[in-house]
Amino acid sequence: MTTKKSISLSFLIVILSLPLYAQKKNGAFRLNIKKTSLPITIDGIGDDKAWQDTDVTTDFFMVLPMDTGKANEPSEIRMTYDENNLYLLATFYNTTKGPYYVESLRRDFSFGKNDNFLLFIDPFNNQTTGYSFGSNAAGAQWDGTMYDGGSVDLNWDSKWISEVTSDDDKWVFEMAIPFKSIRYEEGVSEWGINFSRLDLKSGEKSSWTPIPRQFPTASLAYTGTLVWDAPPPSPRTNFSVIPYVSASVNRNLENGEDTEFDKKIGGDIKFSLSTSLNLDLTINPDFSQVEVDRQVTNLDRFELFFPEKRQFFLENGDLFANFGYATIRPFFSRRIGLGVPIQAGARVSGNLNNKWRMGLMDMQTASVEETGLPSHNFGVLSLQRRIFSRSSIGLIVVNKQAINYPQDTDSLRTAFPKFNRNIGLEYNLASPNNQWTGKAFLLKSFAPKKEGNGITQAAHLEYKSRKWNWRIQEESVEEDYTAEVGFVPRNGYVNISSYLGHLFFPEKSVILSHGPKIRTSYFFNEKLERTDNINLFEYLFSFRDRSSLNLSLSDEYVELLAPFDPTRANKATLDIGSKHHWNAYMIDFVSKPQSMFTYSLGSRFGGYYSGGNRTSLISEVGYRFQPFVSLSSNISFNHIHLPAPWNNTEFWLIGSEVDITFTNKLFFATLFQYNEQSKNFNLNSRFQWRYKPASDLFLVYSNNYLIEPFEGRNWALTLKFTYWFNK
């Protein structure tokens, strides 16, 4: 353990020695906003008199393909406000003629596949949190909360209105955001702000403030300043009630059960505790309308991660879910309500001021009589304080506590431990110019028995410039560390990993950039004996039309620490302690997003466990009849050749989706998934009518079948109605 601790301490010393104080990079870019008493009609035309007396920004900087000058495509932004709303008018002119590229009219569209405009606001001037709003050229809205200085959580929805008009020469976006729909610090007259435009006709991404091309335009480290003529209006109390009623018909054919009819009533309550802190309550929540998981082929030795999609867990979700790394999470909300009804929940989250953020969550689940599972209470506390310019220190406490704990048998107490707790500290590094980022954290678990009490720690440091990108990381997870409400697929290891990449930028070439990238990852047991590693050499090409090509060569070694079936097809297992070594080659190509027909192709050829071979082919194809219909299909094929008793194993995974957006308020999507590895075929169809802002009617149908023999497993039809009452 001394070695592991010294490594972490060295990382922390390096991180803290970096220059972390500096003035705001683009603080000189200032846009004045003045109050208006004139009416504004949101129609996408922008001919109201109120717009004639506003400041206007016209000079945007090019970010992509190169960040060396002004944008070629002209843009204009105007802003004003009144007692109730913040208004914005954006006009985007076209010097490059051609059709607009939009994927669909669906809200929260894919950024890289649409001509679009995005607004980024930082009301607390902390350069780490904020809001994003925008639209594509067909009028589909985009909104989300911002965290970690440049990431956007699109699962957040709020009430605001916008309209878009377009012709051959320009497209115009007009919007109104109610002040009560966002959180900000009272009395502050300067906000961080930036504007981003993506124009696929010209292949140009631009920004109001200059941003290095290696960073997203969402990077809050590079925002300018919105200067109010007076502090924005004091936010009024925001109180929302969002009830729902649902009715469903379902049948479990696999267990021979009869058709059941179920009806539910519940809802959410939102209440603003302050100008920047919100209370959310949920009673008898229902998640029947949530999009189903995309199935994947699993040839990994460890559990796969599937993202959270339930709305209640997502707003300010970074406060809870981003502690640690992707494979070391002390809190993973999908552990709550997994096959168990959630009775109620409460959450307080948001900014306490421009330095402090807080998240407090409490959820209660029901008991399951058939298995003896007791009801559980889940509590999470997260605190985050900004230090230096953009860095932060965080604390997390996670508690899972059984209620009405079984007392009858030792087997029940073993199957359902009385409690599991985690406490952790984390330091997040973000330099003023965003070139240096890093993290260091320490977690301790507590459980009724010794084997549940353990420690995990990790740290990394990353540097990113236009031409160079490197990262070094270390982590260790003790065998006794447990996180029952987290995601930690592997225990009892020490890992050292790193990568180094360099880019070349040829002039006057169809290739925008190219360069090598070397990745390494070595795993050791707690005695620091090597158990597995992967070395990967890549060469990456980015083309000016936004297509890309990656060529890779891998060298892998594995010493198995548990029995493992390398086909994941319920065949024989390889022995513990057996050693395996192989090389493989990968090719991946992604086509340009401007085409109506888009595709990606991926392949993997080479060795596999026990001297065998594995060939994998993966493709994604799509066609759109913009902006109303989008068709897509994902196809994966694996051929595994091993000695007896495995011999040859083949399986297909096919997923096809039809997405129809009749208007920006009326949607229909159907997803088919055929998975030979799990011997499952399923269908999921969702109809959604957003008849008022943030109020919906859903009709959802799902059906699951076994492939062999082809027979039904279960099906369900659900009708759900929600309405947002806002005061």
Automatic annotation (TrEMBL):
Gene3D superfamilies linked: 2.60.40.1190
InterPro entries xref list: Carb-bd_dom_fam9 (IPR010502), DUF5916 (IPR045670)
DUF5916 domain sequence ranges: 237-338
Organism, scientific name: Arenibacter antarcticus
UniProt-listed Pfam families: CBM9_1, DUF5916
CDD domains: CBM9_like_2
Protein name: DUF5916 domain-containing protein
Occurrences of domain Carbohydrate-binding (ranges): 42-203
